[in-house]
From TrEMBL:
Its EC number is 6.1.1.23. InterPro entries: Aa-tRNA-synt_II (IPR004364), aa-tRNA-synth_II (IPR006195), aa-tRNA-synth_II/BPL/LPL (IPR045864), Asp-tRNA-ligase_1 (IPR004524), Asp-tRNA-ligase_1_N (IPR047089), Asp/Asn-tRNA-synth_IIb (IPR002312), AspRS_core (IPR047090), GAD-like_sf (IPR004115). It comes from the Bacteria. SUPFAM superfamilies: Class II aaRS and biotin synthetases, GAD domain-like, Nucleic acid-binding proteins. One of its GO terms (biological process) is aspartyl-tRNA aminoacylation. Residues 200-203 are annotated as: Aspartate. It comes from Candidatus Cytomitobacter indipagum. Its main location: cytoplasm. It holds the Pfam family GAD. This is Aspartate--tRNA(Asp/Asn) ligase. The lineage of its organism: Bacteria, Pseudomonadati, Pseudomonadota, Alphaproteobacteria, Holosporales.
Length: 580
């Protein structure tokens, strides 16, 4: 018997090889079954579960009998074979059980707020008692998966020669991006730190400092509204940057990480081959209605505007003459759908901002609302690809609002998404600028290098492309990145288009613009979201399921009662006054 105080073995260790051996175990009583003169308990630790048994002859019987589930015990006993009719092949330890000789009660549990095996728990209850929720097998698996994935990522990055550097948590507020979380400075009354939305400026400064390849598993803080794939508060990303690197070299590193991680932890799934598909932003919008396409869906939009150049139906004429697009979405099996399906799709599209969603079915003849309006030429194009198609007529700027959701909704309703694949793709050639409230603004990362460098500004701002890119997997954006603008003069010019003066840039980004004046190498990087990677690997659509201690949808920590009020004394120290 081990001399260790609490245990000699873990539950997962025990199998037939241990029969007749004395062991010491420790853990939680997950289940308890009273058979009158005998009590069976399932003892659980972080590795698994083993069945233990005690009878009335044992002096510890009454102590066990009075304990509630989830009480913590340490026990000693002999490993014995289970009767053949009670073997549990679903457990690693399912062929053995422990004949309890001695028990030590380490902690008694009160009545639980919910049953550990209950599946229909509300999220608010789970988050309030997250410490209990995390004991459940499903959550233990996700915690272990997260740990193993981060370990794997670190090993890959170290092998590739990247250096892990930790950047500051307290920094200055940045005018771009999401809202900052701010922290008052006691030593500098009236001034505030900001928690970093990302280590963007610091990692670029590291490139100027002579670091060739940087990475860290970085916490980032953004005061954003919640949604299924984005949680308020902190999130983590694999932040990386490379000096003297091209876009393709950044892609190669990220693809190696993704392919290795997803192949290792989901060997049951098909993974995109390297190199991943590259889709220009404009093409993604016209083909998928989104810059986050789900390539598991076996159909996409086709631009058929050219078919209406000479013979354009009245309902499409204003769109075509105004420079808009007519898109066709051919779908195999569409002719088998009911009128209720088409009506629901029409409503779905309109709820997302579409004028309408027409369709035509082609078999031996033509049918559907557009059958009499669309030419035989159009119906023949549909027939070449499918037995029916939806049609959208609109301007490109409006397409992302509803074209992508419609495509996904059709695929979901018709069960046409291949759930056994991870489909990766790069979205490239993002526009550098977009119109926001009547003026030009950065559409992506303001520190990106415009394609063409200084010569890019000879074009209209709407035509300037940037060395910016996103990596998308199954419709989920996993990372954004860019080749950075390392030239001060190009940076001043880029910000000038977005309405910033030279003085504005010097004030807002003084450290970085000043550093670039002393010799900055070309550099680029990316930052895959750890939480979203785990979300995909764990096959869950809610990011809060894989964050150990997430905030709820209102940005609250129900377990720790945060955010909370602070005392007047503390406020006075910080020089803060709360307005009534």
């Amino acid at each position: 018997m081990s001399k260790k105080q609490y245990r000699s073995n873990y539950c997962m260790d025990l199998n037939s090889d241990y029969i007749d051996k004395e062991v010491k175990l420790a853990g939680w009583i997950r289940k308890k079954r009273d058979h009158g003169n005998m009590i069976f308990i399932d003892l659980k630790d972080h590795t698994g579960v083993v069945q233990c048994v005690i009878d009335t002859k044992n002096e510890n019987f009454e102590n066990i009998n009075q304990l509630s589930v989830e009480s913590v015990i340490s026990l000693e006993g002999k490993v014995i074979a289970r009767p053949s009719d009670s073997i549990n092949d679903g457990l690693e330890s399912g062929k053995v059980e422990i004949d309890i000789k001695k028990i030590t009660i380490l902690s008694k549990a009160q009545t639980l707020p919910f049953a550990m095996h209950q599946d229909d728990l509300g999220e608010e209850l789970r988050l309030k008692y997250r410490f209990l929720d995390l004991r459940r097998d499903e959550m233990q698996y996700r915690l272990k998966l997260r740990s193993d994935v981060i370990k794997e990522i670190r090993e890959i990055m170290e092998e590739k020669g990247f250096m892990e550097v930790h950047t500051p948590i307290l920094t200055s507020s940045s005018p771009e991006g999401a809202r900052d979380y701010v922290v008052p400075s006691r030593l500098n009354p009236g001034k505030f730190y900001a928690l970093p939305q990302a280590p963007q400026q610091f990692k670029q400064l590291l490139m100027v400092s002579g670091v060739s390849k940087y990475y860290q598993i970085a916490p980032c803080f953004r005061d954003e509204d919640t949604r299924a794939d984005r949680a308020p508060g902190a999130f983590y990303q694999l932040d990386m940057e490379m000096a003297f690197a091209t876009q393709e070299e950044v892609f190669e590193v990220i693809e190696d990480v993704m392919f290795s991680v997803f192949s290792k932890f989901r060997s049951d799934m098909e993974i995109s081959n390297k190199p991943f598909v590259k889709i220009p932003y404009k093409e993604a919008i016209l083909k998928y209605g989104s810059d986050k396409p789900d390539l598991r869906i076996p159909f996409h939009y086709h631009d058929i505007t050219h078919l209406f150049a000479e013979n354009c139906p009245k309902i499409f004429k204003s769109i075509v003459e105004g420079g808009g697009k007519i898109l066709m979405l051919p779908v195999k099996g569409l002719s088998n759908q009911t009128r209720k399906f088409f009506d629901s799709m029409q409503k779905f599209a309109q709820d997302h901002g579409a004028f309408g969603l027409g369709y035509m079915l082609v078999g031996e003849g033509k049918s559907g609302p557009l059958a009499k309006i669309l030419s035989d030429e159009v119906s023949n194009v549909v027939r070449e690809k499918a037995d029916g198609a939806f049609f959208i007529a609109d301007y490109e700027v409006n397409l992302p609002k509803y074209a992508g959701p419609v495509l996904k909704k059709v695929a979901e309703e018709m069960n046409l998404i291949n759930k056994d694949k991870y489909e990766f793709c790069w979205i490239i050639d993002y526009p550098m600028y977009e119109i926001n409230e009547g003026k030009w603004d950065f559409s992506h990362n303001p520190f990106s290098m415009p394609q063409g460098e200084m010569n890019a500004f000879e074009k209209d701002p709407g035509e300037i492309m940037a060395y910016q890119y996103d990596l998308v997997c199954n419709g989920i954006e996993l990372t954004s990145g860019a080749i950075r603008n390392h030239d001060p003069e190009i940076m001043y010019k880029a910000f000038e288009v977005a309405g910033y003066s030279k003085e504005d840039v010097d004030r807002e980004f003084g450290a970085m613009i000043n550093a670039f004046k002393y010799g900055a190498p070309p550099h680029g990087g990316s930052a895959p979201g750890i939480d979203r990677m785990i979300m995909l690997l764990a096959d869950t659509e809610n990011i809060r399921e894989i964050i150990p201690f997430p905030l709820n949808q209102q940005g609250q920590d129900l377990m720790m009662n945060a955010p909370c009020e602070i005392s007047n004394k503390h406020l006075k120290e910080l020089g803060i006054k709360i307005e009534e």
